[in-house]
Amino acid sequence: MRQMLAVVGVLGLVCVAGCGADEGPAVTAPSPASSSAPPVTPSEPAGAYAPPSPVRSVPVVRATPALTLAAAGQKYLAITRPYNVALESFEKAANENMSLSTLQNRAKAVAAMNLAEYTALRSTVWPAKVSTQMRALAKADAASRPHWLQVAASDSKTEMADHLEFAMTAGSKAPSAQVRQLLGLPKYDEKDYS
Question: Compositional bias (Low complexity) at which positions (predicted)?
Answer without folding.
Answer: 26-46
